[in-house]
Design a protein that fits this description.
The structure is a homotrimer.
Chain A (H helix, E strand, L loop, with lengths): L11 H5 L1 E6 L4 H16 L3 E6 L44 H15 L5 H10 L3 E5 H6 L11 E5 L1 H7 L4 E4 L1
Parallel strand pairs in A: 1-2, 1-5, 2-3, 3-4
């Protein structure tokens, strides 16, 4: 609104932009959207924060982060590979299905040259992204800082989160 | 804050508003919230973008968009019709349950005069809404532009998405 | 941008901030994130609105709000208590599993001193939070104002929602 008065010093708007993503899921398919968006945001010079909470806490927990899985259970958009045939929901809870579906999805993602979740987080941190852990989730899981990735900047409560997210575009994944 | 200096030319704020919805789910019940919100936003003169990714890609894929389904599996808020009795989770993965639940939900939605998903997207585009497809999802599904609705404006990557979403209110559904 | 011209009257930015959360899930684990964030936002003096729609409608429906449940079905981040062992997905739809998992989660939450959902909503309203019900969801469930918590301020349509959410940070949970 004050364009006529204040000179434009270039891409100020761009550098003022902030993206704050809440990662609440620990299934493989819902871990990736946050990582892909964060990575793109950092490439555009956007200040980027990832806040890990509830099931998403697995993404930064050392003992769990290498074993995120994918389940087709309840997902009616799961198709048999290379076809338009949906996987029958009655098959999806059968023993071994999670392992098979996880392996298939990991291959699909690797084939696109996209890193595994822990490596992708390494890359995001190297690009300047900020990782935060939720205090309530840490307490529910009885986990401490030493249980988490070393590059997590802190275990913070929801009030701290509200301060970090001020002025940002927010996503809950 | 500069109200005293800059004259108010009316509903400028309203016309500057932008809504960007990421559609990541392909289940029927999680397809509708984006459509209902987009439709309302367009009615208010808000610039509206829908970005289809992961399972939400089914919503714009010609061979799949007429067959979105609903599954009560894992959804503990699913009640037996007209009652407060919850559907037992042990029943929900049984053969035929997805078909039955889908049929029931489609009827509930049709009874309210709300169009089916492809028709609702027609209406959203006619009202000025923008549809975008995710490059990574297209590659994972081995789908091309010809496989998608003709009114999808492009298959774009996450960087393009960050540019489109600048200054917008964002939702991840 | 107009800092040099307009005097700063203190924490104006803070008090102008608005948070609008769409609550679309009725499972216990996805009811809490909205409540925790809303509570923190109110503590920071942020105008806070919760909009209950689809499965989230159960959170404000008198006959259902005391019986939200949790299901491990489809959630591959569900671990056996106190271990890093994942619960096998093939076990999760078995009879009694929802009840057991719900009881376990309720205890985990109570142990942290966090109130049950209806009590937490009481507290949010007492702190100035606003509760809104979705018209479409009310119609789908054939529910009226008398079926909902008395402190729900109204059953509103998506257009009303777009007006309430103007200028706010938005989350879809």
């Amino acid at each position: 609104m004050a364009d006529a008065i204040i000179p434009d010093f270039g891409d100020d708007d761009e550098t003022d932009r902030k993206l704050v993503i809440i990662c609440s899921k620990g299934n493989l398919d819902m871990a990736y959207p946050a990582l892909v968006l964060a990575n793109a945001a950092l490439g555009e010079g956007i200040e980027t924060h990832l806040f890990f909470t509830f099931w998403g806490f697995d993404m930064i927990t050392k003992s769990r982060m290498h074993d995120l899985q994918f389940s087709p259970v309840g997902n009616t958009a799961m198709h048999l590979p290379g076809r338009n045939t949906k996987m029958p929901q009655s098959l999806s809870p059968m023993p071994g299905m999670t392992q098979m579906a996880t392996k298939m999805m990991k291959k699909q993602i690797a084939d696109l040259g996209i890193p595994e979740v822990p490596d992708f987080l390494d890359q995001i941190v190297a690009s300047g992204g900020h990782l935060w852990a939720c205090r309530m989730s840490a307490d529910m899981n009885k986990l401490e800082e030493t249980d988490l990735r070393d590059d997590v900047e802190g275990i913070i409560n929801a009030t701290d989160f509200m301060e970090i997210s001020e002025g940002g575009q927010m996503l809950f994944i």
